[in-house]
Amino acid sequence: MANYKPVIVQSFPKLGEKVTKDTLYWKNYKAPIQIKEFGAVNKIDFSPIPPYNYAVTASSRIHIYGRYSQEPVKTFSRFKDVAYCATYRDDGKLLVAGSEDGSVRLFDISGRAPLRQFDGHTKAVHVVNFLSDKYRIVSGADDYTSKVWDVSSSSEIASYEEHTDYIRCSCISKQNADLFVTGSYDHTVKVFDTRTEKSVMTIEHGQPVESVNLFPSGGLLVTAGGRYVKVWDILKGGQLLVSLRNHHKTVTCLCLNSSGQRLLSGSLDRHVKVYSTTSYKVVHSFNYEASILSLALAPEDETLVVGMTNGILNVKHRKHEGEKEHLQRRGPAYRTFVKGRNYMPKQEDFFVSKPVKNHLKKYDMLLKRFEVSKALDAVLQAPARKNPPEVTVAVMQELNRRGTLKNALAGRNEKQLNVLLSFLIRHVTDARFAPVLINVAEIIIDIYMPVIGQSPIIDKQFLKLQNLIEKEIDYQEELLEVLGMMDALFATMTRKRPAAMDENKHNL
């Protein structure tokens, strides 16, 4: 008996990933550095002044990390309970943070003990921020109130009680020192002016609001809550411009790059999406190992830091153009392994070959023993990563060549036939496999037509296959109609051109 020849699996060309400028730019961030914190990272904030250190709030501590340091250069731990939302002032000299006990603490970056403590909230303060005049602080808490504090006198300037649920996010206007925005779990976003006693604008987001962010111009507001990211025009009275739904779970944080041309959103679905602020389309996506609670970009977009629910801090640094990584050479050079590969034997040389044992796949072993039905089961029931559809189709082609395809498809029970029909439904409309699978579908219908109606599962699968093929036929007919229209257009264009050339000749 001649040696068995394994089944040849045809390789099909794969569509490459569309490479854009954004893809190249965002993929230019180096392999991440991971730092373990004491608890879930609820806030990351970069200092606005060089060397651009960043404050990380997790558990009952605030760590200040250097941009390229994996160890904290400073720690603030004077909290009795969980700390929240440590935020830098515009000059990078002061840091403010909220806490679970309802107090707001102000720290000097060069010291350790709090400079000021603002007491007035009755529940946890999740939101703190400096107004752009640098001398006032705004805070929002779980007692449904937002307050404005004076730094110099440690006194409360204003208090707003318009929200009806927890206040969990805020942002300030850099153009107007009196404006700030708060977002709440009552599904609303409110714009406040410290010169008035009530909010000047209310926006209905539709879901509990987790994050808000103002564009540098101050005219556009971005809100995140539920699975939605929404952009509003403040200058038009809070008109909704666009609603984005690209995440599968709750969006927890927002961030703009230094130019304001890219918007980043982090979610509990472990993804960070990058949007273009001109088209509001996703231009890139990052995948992480755990749900994301916070993210921040360094000034000039040199560093991307992401905080997760499992306490991991993920830090990525962007490579500069022209930067080369010098890798240490390990082991022998490549030429050592290919030495003698192109050697041509002389007439007096004796060639000694080492026998190589070919290990057959499971389906090849079954085909070698003429167990055709089991060979087909082996490729249908194996995981897709182990046996992609190309392998299954190749085995079907081999069975058809041998004339045993009908025998392999016959005599199947309900479970085996269900698996086979599921494979056909998934791949029969694929242009690469259609010629083979349509033939298989015709054989299955011929074999199992007498038993239709005995199993509701198989009947449902046959109906699915029928609907799928009918839709595909409709698509093909529509495409043929379009091709006919295009042929007619091209025909009229080719007729007009020679006529125009003849007119030019007569004129000459």
Describe the structure.
- The protein starts with 20 loop residues before the first helix and ends with a helix.
- 25% of the residues lie in helices and 32% in strands.
- Mean pLDDT is 88; it is low at 324-328.
- Strand 3 (54-58) and strand 4 (61-65) form a beta hairpin.
- It has a four-stranded antiparallel sheet, with no helix packed on it. The chain has a four-stranded antiparallel sheet with strand order 2-3-4-5, with no helix packed on it. It has a four-stranded antiparallel sheet with strand order 6-7-8-9, with no helix packed on it.
- It has 508 residues and is of the alpha+beta class.
- It is built from nine helices and 28 strands.
- 32% of the residues are buried.
- The longest helix has 52 residues, at 456-507.
Write down the oligomeric state.
single chain
The percentage helix is: 25-40%
Number of strands: 28
Unreliable residue stretches: 324-328
Radius of gyration: 33 Å
Strand fraction: 25-35%
Protein name: U3 small nucleolar RNA-associated protein 15 homolog
Subunit structure: Part of the small subunit (SSU) processome, composed of more than 70 proteins and the RNA chaperone small nucleolar RNA (snoRNA) U3. May be a component of the proposed t-UTP subcomplex of the ribosomal small subunit (SSU) processome.
Subcellular location: Nucleus, Nucleolus
Keywords: Nucleus, Repeat, rRNA processing, WD repeat
